[in-house]
Amino acid sequence: MISRLKRSVLAMPGSNARALEKGKTLAADVLMFELEDGVAESAKATARAQVAAAVADGGYGARQLVVRVNARGSEWYKPDIAAIAPLGPDGIVIPKVNSRDEILKAAADLVAAGAPYKTRLWAMIETPRAVFDIEKIASAADDRASRLEVLVLGPNDIAKSTRARLTPGRPALLSWLSAGVLAARVHNIEIIDGIYNDFNDLDGLRREAAQGRDFGFDGKMLIHPGQIGPVNEIFAPSAEEVDFARRIIAVFDEPENADKGVVQIDGKMVERLHLDIARRTLQLVEASG
Ligand SMILES: CC(C)(COP(=O)(O)OP(=O)(O)OC[C@H]1O[C@@H](n2cnc3c(N)ncnc32)[C@H](O)[C@@H]1OP(=O)(O)O)[C@@H](O)C(=O)NCCC(=O)NCCSC(=O)C[C@H](O)C(=O)O
Ligand SMILES: [Mg+2]
């Protein structure tokens, strides 16, 4: 089964009241209220109060609401968790996670703060240690108490801390991207690709989003409303993919193929594993309306 779609995860600084309001009208699958690096130190308290009010008041319809708190160990983490966790957002995003143990401690922090069970943990992978140990971090999800549901890549922090450059096609990041997808699949959680900074360059965004989709990511983190439409489209199956999926299902439904493990459609070999993929394609279509 497909859990709720996370094609587009839009960050909005908690200090920007206009953005928080605008989120109610935007077609992002997930709104990520930002308290960390997108908020100046002098605005941390205001941002926390505005985000708490937004989560408590609601009005965001079916959009999933997650809150990125400040890093564990920072002076703002505890007040962030105390203010946000009891309100029961869909997720709390922990930035700059370095270990599995940190996830388990953050989950215990949520319980201590009175977060309802539905509030899941998202972990940002954005340090050299996290990139290196991504499978160990993802393995926290094997412990249900961890609440770990999603990994999110943070390319800006990765670039800062590794000195890698974010160039077109992301050659410096490719092995890290695929390691992340493998870790997520091994531990049955979702993984979201990182942001594309040049928000006016929609062609570049499309290329990078398609690359992330083709690597197996479940969606992309965004910074600007203009990025939502292209990314929702790229992470939804194309009309051709949907048509082919329907044909695969129809062919395997035919009585003469009931005992066949493999058939051909348009000169392509199709096995029953492709039937599973086809069913998932249609579930994605249904989930995206
Ligand atoms: C990047 C921005 C600062 C640009 O803002 P602005 O100059 O206001 O852009 P526009 O004039 O084009 O905005 C047009 C309207 O859209 C609204 N808007 C803009 N951005 C958002 C948003 N993110 N959410 C909701 N609404 C938004 C503007 O208010 C305008 O509205 P209106 O006046 O009604 O027409 C800005 O886009 C921005 O702040 N983006 C998010 C930045 C952020 O949250 N950063 C932290 C997350 S990034 C990250 O996680 C990096 C990661 O950790 C890593 O290491 O890689
Ligand atoms: Mg970051």
Automatic annotation (TrEMBL):
Residues 7-225 form the HpcH/HpaI aldolase/citrate lyase domain. Gene3D superfamilies: Phosphoenolpyruvate-binding domains. The keyword Metal-binding applies. Its cofactor is Mg(2+). Keywords: Lyase, Magnesium, Metal-binding. It comes from the Bacteria. The keyword Membrane does not apply. One of its GO terms (molecular function) is lyase activity. This is CoA ester lyase. The lineage of its organism: Bacteria, Pseudomonadati, Pseudomonadota, Alphaproteobacteria, Hyphomicrobiales.
